Amino acid sequence: KKAMDTIVVPNQNWMSADAEGNIAYLPGGLVPIRNKGRGMTPVPGWTGEYDWVGFIPLFEHPYAINPKRGWMVTANNEVVDMEWYPYTFASNYSSGWRALRIEELIQKLQPLDMEKMIQIQNDIYSKEGEAFAPLIVSAYEKKGKEEAGLKSAVEYLKNWDYLTDTESIGATIYYTTMLKLFDNVLKDEFDKEFYNAYIANRRLSIALNLWLKQGESEFFDDKRTKDKVEDMDDMLVKSLQDAVQWLTKNLGKDISQWQWGKLHTIKWSHPLGFGPMKELSYGPLPHPGAGEIVRNAGYSGTGENPFRTGGGPVLRHIIDMGNPDSALMVIDGSESGNYLDPHYKDMHRLWYESKYITAVIDEKKVKQSAKSVLILEP
Question: How many CA atoms lie within 13 A of 322 on its CB side?
């Protein structure tokens, strides 16, 4: 904790563990106390009204050391209850589905070991889908039209196991419906440029999640229809219809061919990786997961391929502090930036297939296994 108290920037969540069984969550970095506002929008900078008035005292930062339950989770989720915490500690939290799933798996898989940690890191179950897919089904059953395509899509949603593997059809229908729901709920509120700029913003996703949980919001009403006030069910049914129409156009009429991996892909693109130099890039490949999945694989929701993966875990690392030489790791690329080097992209496939390599930590063993040494001198 003393070491964390010396960090000014960047602001990061830090988790620690040692061979004696101690664990801790410690945030690093100074956090300003704001005279007014949350620092999320432009404000008059010349009045002093929004000035910083110091920093949150380090002893008031949220932290946890050896909690009674014996484990902690941080996955971009809210780390302190802002209802009672007196300061704005952070603002860009995720909706919490990943953290919720990790907590669920930790409790389910006790006692944990290396193999179970691999299972957790690569989990592709959608807690968001578990919460909201039944709402789509319910809305259709109340207000949907008796159309063959819609009925088939709803049956796939009913039988979806909430896994986001590349063969899943339920995942395809669900995430396309949710993307269309963004359009139907928010496009009438903003101009096109603003909407396209912010559709992938985490806060919009959190807001939509909140409205769905509440079951109502004034945003569900489509301002473009003057003679009707739409509710959540109206928007869900319309979004399902739009999704089926879009999927039929892009994947064909046969719903059994609507596999998630046909839309949700990943590609590691080199700036020059096209034409005769296409080997510089890697992919595209069908890719499991989604934005709020433990095996995170978010997408922008815009462009010609709105579901192409645009973000995820650069590093997967698992260490048993009682046996650190058994540590595992993989990165979503490789060590070298030289495309002629054998280590230019030799970890791509390992990362993609959720495989790992042994990560030697002991200094003596590192030197013994080194194939070359790079010396940097001033």
Answer: 5
